[in-house]
Amino acid sequence: MVLTSGALAVPNVLAAPATPCPSDMVYIPGGTFAMGSDSSDFVEEKIAADVTVSSFCIEPHEVTNAQFAEFVAATGYVTVAERPLSKEQFPDLSDDDRAPGSLVFKPPEEGIQQVAYLSWWRWTPGASWRHPFGPDSDIRGKDHYPVVHIAYKDAVAYAAWANRKLPTEAQWEYAARGGVEGSTYTWGEQYSARQANTWQGLFPFFNTKADGHLGTAPVMSFSPNGYGLYDMTGNVWELTADWYTVHHDGNAHSQDPTGPAQAQSYDPKKPQDGAMHVIKGGSYLCAKNYCSRYRPAARESQALDTGTTHVGFRLVKSASKEASTA
Questions:
Q1: Is the distance from CB of 180 to CB of 232 less than 8 angstroms?
Q2: Which region among 98-112, 149-163, 262-276 has the lowest average model confidence (pLDDT)?
Q3: Longest CA pairwise span in the chain (Å)
């Protein structure tokens, strides 16, 4: 299946001729790389050496609102954020407290100098992919913005419909590096506000918008990496298929690793969330003074049953003769 609704034209200079991929995907030649970074302060990024990835196809940009709307129109799918919370999972909550909703970023009010950790996230009834900041917001005029408030099972459902799948962490990081191993960022060694949609200024108090955006940006707003992939840095975090553990050195010296088993998944920073999936790439909320994970090596955990205003996804497909006719 080639997704056409709201499709964006990728410059011809980026399109490799006669690749075994659908026309709306980019061919990534296989290879071996060092996954992670030993120069980072984050222990979970410790290098996994000699990770080999087979050739594959990947979407050039994050899944957009228009593309997700096509899926919903075709299937009638209802996202996790649009469903009431389960009585079995939350027996002590009232029906009103179990109303559909999602987590929304809300910066502190002007003049406040200090805020409690993570207090900038608010559970917002009525927030969903259609209403990113609550029931009074919408996505009119934002067809080409990345879809958000997507929980893991939402991404998997979309992938099944599209006959594709979420990338493994190794696939995602290998593609993000754009054929250049060892660089801190997807474009080189020096941070630049003009290269990606990130937070400039003191998070969470003020954003100078040096990159031209306060929230998410339309996909393909910034230059692509060496493989012709957009927004592998910033804009929104991207879900992967891998379960999260603090260390990923178990991937070292492996072929097409898929990460740990669900039973092994755990983030000591979020013990209440249980097993979680790896997200990659950072988002428009990543700043130098907080997060700073807008790098290929960076990784974070994401709960299975929660969407947010800064998490989306893109999909991959095997590079094969069948793919070219899909």
A1: no
A2: 98-112
A3: 59
